[in-house]
Amino acid sequence: PRQLVDEVDGRDMGTPDAWIKRDPSLIRLTGRHPFNCEPPLKDLVDAGFITPTKIHFVRNHGKVPKIKWEDHRVTVKGLVNNPRVFTMDEIVSLPSHELPVTFPCAGNRRKEENMVKKGLGFSWGAAAHATSVWKGVRLSTLLKECGVKTKEQGGKFVCFRGPKKELPKGKDGSYGTSIAIDRAMQDNWDVILAYEQNGKPLAPDHGFPLRIIIPGFIGGRMVKWLQHIEVTSKESDNHFHYYDNRVLPNEVTAERANEEDWWHNPDFIINDINIQSAIRSPEHKEIVTPTEGTYTVKGYAFAGGGRKVIRCEVSLDEGRTWTLAKIKRGEAEWYKQHGSPEQQRNYDSRGKHWCWVHWSIDLEKKRLCGAKELRCRAWDQDHNTQPLHIAWNVMGMLNNSSYRLRIHETKTESGEKGFWFEHPCLAGPQPGGWMVPEEEVRPQALYASLGGVDPRKIPDTKFTVAEIEARNKEQKGVWVAIDGLVFDASSVLDEQPPKGVVITIGGTTYAQEFAGLPKPREVALTNKFQGGKLPCKGKLSK
Amino acid sequence: PRQLVDEVDGRDMGTPDAWIKRDPSLIRLTGRHPFNCEPPLKDLVDAGFITPTKIHFVRNHGKVPKIKWEDHRVTVKGLVNNPRVFTMDEIVSLPSHELPVTFPCAGNRRKEENMVKKGLGFSWGAAAHATSVWKGVRLSTLLKECGVKTKEQGGKFVCFRGPKKELPKGKDGSYGTSIAIDRAMQDNWDVILAYEQNGKPLAPDHGFPLRIIIPGFIGGRMVKWLQHIEVTSKESDNHFHYYDNRVLPNEVTAERANEEDWWHNPDFIINDINIQSAIRSPEHKEIVTPTEGTYTVKGYAFAGGGRKVIRCEVSLDEGRTWTLAKIKRGEAEWYKQHGSPEQQRNYDSRGKHWCWVHWSIDLEKKRLCGAKELRCRAWDQDHNTQPLHIAWNVMGMLNNSSYRLRIHETKTESGEKGFWFEHPCLAGPQPGGWMVPEEEVRPQALYASLGGVDPRKIPDTKFTVAEIEARNKEQKGVWVAIDGLVFDASSVLDEQPPKGVVITIGGTTYAQEFAGLPKPREVALTNKFQGGKLPCKGKLSK
């Protein structure tokens, strides 16, 4: 595999992904494995319009498939006149299309939601968006090659999936989804099957050798390791098309979602992402002194559906009044500098905006320091903006509440009066931030969520990750660390959750850790754990 | 003209529109003339999915042009190979397309914004949306007839305008705008030139004989009395394309907008409308008793850009938690009942939603009566929702803050304990509602806005509308009633503002009344009035 960095990170040793070289600066959100990560927010924004591949966030449900370019095949079937199987070389030989596209995670800023109330997913911070230059073949080109049938002939959706048996969920273990045929076939939607990211073949974590890129959509629909394309009259029936990437209404709990089957309600699917923004500067714990001059507040913003970001604003009075920031449009610049004349012309007239913007505003330091909080929000071209409050939903999806820093008085190292900025929380297991996790607010809720583990009865014994790993390797049972506590899960797990791996995330909710586990284990462990059946052996040593 | 009702409304007598028969139930928002109106909210919602033409809101900038079907011509020119002039009969002879489309006013619910702070526009209530079945020819059909040039050949926009010299603004006095060529030419955007509304030729107020319908867009771009279509490489340069239908940022006042020319910033144009909703039941002043059983809360919701409304919700706790309402999708039903097989198939697969929905939820009366307020909000398919607070802007556009009723204890007529519901405010000059107008909160601001008329120095003399009208008819001068005060405007108006008409709106801001006036009078009156130069003669008798 192409090297993103020089060597394999120590944390990947002993996992099925030990062959992939990953940047050690990435913050791991679900322990060591499977690999789900985002970069520090400041690194992401400071890298500029195009995100270096090595710090592009990653969402893996399981181990990364080891695929060889020459062995890979892409099947196109269903409502096409000439079903075909393509080699990668055949795909590359078709006319190519290259363009910058922002790749947004539907779970971006889920940690804030999890702080409000525990949900089903792990704790993304605010750096699960990234922008790459993707190169590939238009999906429409491939489908036309195969004689795609018209809508009149029944071809209404295009379904995609990765390798079978990749994951222990769904009927064939593949990750898949679908899009409407209009989106697939109309050129100004720019849907491509990408084999290059930022000028190089895809990295294994990003779908080598082929992934679909659907500009404007959430990343969860941009299937990696793409193997199978089928034109159908109905939406995909893939497990992940229904049981992931949905915003269920506020009142729907995990239990109700399953019992009343909210998953198949077509209204709650996420495709194009809502309007998003976050603040990069000041960063968490940064100190500003109330001296003369200005401080440059900075951040990013993005909207799905090709909608332009038209306003980025900050507020120093809890959202009562807002001041306009300057917007830097990297996408327009990219087309000017790198686009062919045709691409430049198309960019001007296609009316679609596929990329994030960076924004900045110079504020008087004295004014900034005189405030209690600093917020940002953005607006899309249809004048939708971000709400002031989190709209909690059980999957913790699409949190686009106005991003909010608190400002506190402090002293600088030299004893001067200063003010430090506190972000709401930090990605994954990192402590810090002004949001108070639910368990600190509601000990009763914590008690219930720990499944009957009375916090007063947790043994004081401490175990290190190494000790737990050693036990497991010696097959003395299957112990897992969940939310800082160590449990003997032997009664419900007959093998170690991915071999040699200990779930050691820490973080604030146990649900975070389960999200990365294959389904059968997840169910077993969650149910038993919730029932207080797993013996608690002690605490995790940090 | 086709009769909407049996006779001309008395209020139209003596105005240039005295030949048009209008429904007397319509609430006039800018006095008698020009005609700007909306129906009572309950009538609008109770009429169901399709709004009867006679209660469809109307926005007229001036008098309605008297056009004869056989005389009307539509010119198509610019970047087309065969410029042409069409008669109405020729347009009707082309293949037709008929479909239901919701027609939303960008100023819907502006009165709430005006209550927060006076803006530039008059006070729409929450009934400036309506849905009709429109029939016409696809714009793409007409343009193809004329050999429209491709984008590569420079054809990027389609400009439209109504009759020249219709209005005293802009270089030719026409009302016009433009749309992107993709929107015009792609069939699934359904842009049509409509000559029928709800099965009959257009009414004069709605653009007889031809208007453009751009599904998803605000009504302000759906040019009436359409005369001229031009394919261009640039956006329309029409006055109204820039100086109307914009959302300027919060901090931009009318003065800054002009001085710094915010009007030509391409980011602030309104095309597709943001997500909207309002509550019809309980209506203003309705009383509910806290007895057993449920009360059905009802309303409408709509989103632009073809986006589906996926959630309608109500909150009884100031927006902290929300409960899902049931959605009735009239559009899907319409296609089932009235669509051809082709239309039905297209509706299923086009992925566009052009119509509002009606929603309802049965709430326990006791729970409803136990709350302090009742709010609603809706969500679009990209998971954008309505903010809790008004994002004030100088034109008072696109107010989509969550619609909010206050609940107060009272007694029913029979002496029982009951609770009455208070809407934020009522359309146009109607008094009532919990929102406190700015002038009651800030007497200083009022003093400034009254242009130097010291409230303590207003004569106690009272005049009725009839008395003022009589004076004006006898040519004793030109008196006008503005915001409850009577002024002698003879020094700035050399004729009565539209003959025989007294501006008698009352309402909460004088700006309301001026918005509907032709420009020269508006400027003269506003400037003089602001300078405190108009002699104040007394108060308007109610």
TrEMBL record, chains A, B:
Gene3D superfamilies: 2.60.40.650, Cytochrome b5-like heme/steroid binding domain, Oxidoreductase, molybdopterin-binding domain. Its cofactor is Mo-molybdopterin. InterPro entries: Cyt_B5-like_heme/steroid_sf, Ig_E-set, MoCF_OxRdtse_dimer, Mopterin_OxRdtase_euk, OxRdtase_Mopterin-bd_dom, OxRdtase_Mopterin-bd_sf, OxRdtase_Mopterin_BS. Pfam families: Mo-co_dimer, Oxidored_molyb. GO terms for molecular function: heme binding; molybdenum ion binding; molybdopterin cofactor binding; sulfite oxidase activity. Residues 61-239 form the Oxidoreductase molybdopterin-binding domain. This is Nitrate reductase. It comes from Lotharella oceanica. The lineage of its organism: Eukaryota, Sar, Rhizaria, Cercozoa, Chlorarachniophyceae.
